[in-house]
Amino acid sequence: INRPNVTNNELNDLIRQDPSLAGRVLHIANSPFYGGRFQARRISDAIVRMGMRQLRNILVVAATGELFDVRDPIVRGFWDHALTVATLGDRIASELSLADTEEVFIAGLLHDIGKFIIYQQHPAPYSDVIQQAQASGRRLIDVEDELFKYFNHVTIGGIAIRRWKLADAVAETARYHHVAEREIPPGMENTNLVCVVTLANVLVKAIAQGEPVPAPETLVQLACVQQLRLTPGRLAALTRSATEWCPHAEGLMALEA
Q1: What is the pLDDT of residue 175?
Q2: How many CB atoms lie within 10 A of CB 241?
Q3: Along the chain (257 residues), what's the average pLDDT of each consecutive run of 10 residues?
Q4: For tag attachment on the chain, is the N or C end more exposed, with fewer CB atoms within 10 Å?
Q5: Contact at 8 Å (CB) between 178 and 141?
Q6: Cβ–Cβ < 8 Å for 72, 137
Q7: CB 11 within 8 A of CB 51
Q8: Which of 57, 50, 48 is nearest to 2 (CA)?
Q9: Buried (b) or exposed (e) across 219-238, using 16+ Cβ within 10 A?
Q10: How far, in Å, CA of 104 to CA of 213, rounded?
């Protein structure tokens, strides 16, 4: 993809050699966020629909392999949430014309990768943790901290992304997307990118739970919003657009907290 003269046919032939990868590309291309009037049945259709930039992002994510087995309803819930945050974050970054958010889509897609990893390793105990959080109305990360101490999904996610040698910005987003709601950690290098994903995460969570999108007066108190220097008026416009950009977010499994 980075080669200037690469053709769609070359990419099509290469992706088709890996059935799992081909299936993932088609699944995403036919998701509500990319879906057109007709289903993409061939890899070549998916490439045209998604574009080179987004296809590259999806191929990077595909390297995580079995973590994204959407046949499991809990994994499907994780995945749908991650894809919605990635899509909304990409749109917010575009609206704000931020120069340093090129990787916002991939960062949004992997911001909760720690949940996939924990669930894959310990499905039954982690299912119990999820149920506890949902039943009590508490944040999932708070229940994790209570039961797992320092091995919550943000810590695991940050470590995994660094071991996979993905961009530091992606690792920082996984590590700090909850922290950036209340403060900007000193030494964080990709502040705007992390803050965009954090804001998208907050908005998607509200939409998924069927709640009203938080009022600008509430959102403006978030550290990530202050870092992005968003005025109440600009926030109001963004939150109105969020429900339009993510029409399928309501009803997603509310697994993010």
Answers
A1: 95
A2: 15
A3: 86 86 78 67 82 75 64 84 86 80 82 92 91 87 84 92 85 95 91 94 79 78 93 85 63 46
A4: N
A5: yes
A6: no
A7: no
A8: 57
A9: beebbbbebbebeeebbbeb
A10: 22
Q: Tokens representing 76?
A: 């499907």
Residue 109's contacts (CB-CB under 8 Å, 6 or more residues apart) are 57, 61, 82, 83, 85, 86
- Percent helix, strand, coil in the chain (nearest 5)? 65, 0, 35
Q: How far apart are CA 37 and CA 222, in angstroms?
A: 38
Residue 196: what residue type?
Answer: V
What are phi and psi for residue 213, nearest 5 degrees?
A: -60, 135
H-helix or E-strand spanning residue 129: helix 123-136
Residue 242, helix vs strand vs coil: helix
For residue 218 the two structure tokens come to 């509430």
Reduce the DSSP state of residue 213 to 3 states and report it.
coil
Per DSSP, 72 falls in state S
Q: Tell me the C-alpha distance between 206 and 219, whole Å.
A: 12
Under a CB-based contact definition with an 8 Å cutoff, are residues 108 and 82 in contact? Answer: yes
> Measured between alpha carbons, how far is 201 from 57 in angstroms, rounded to an integer?
19
Place of tokens 């709640």: 211
The token duo for 160 is 């995994």
94, 103, 110, 176 from 166: Cα distances, Å:
22, 11, 10, 16
Alpha-carbon distance of 122 to 130, in angstroms, equals 12
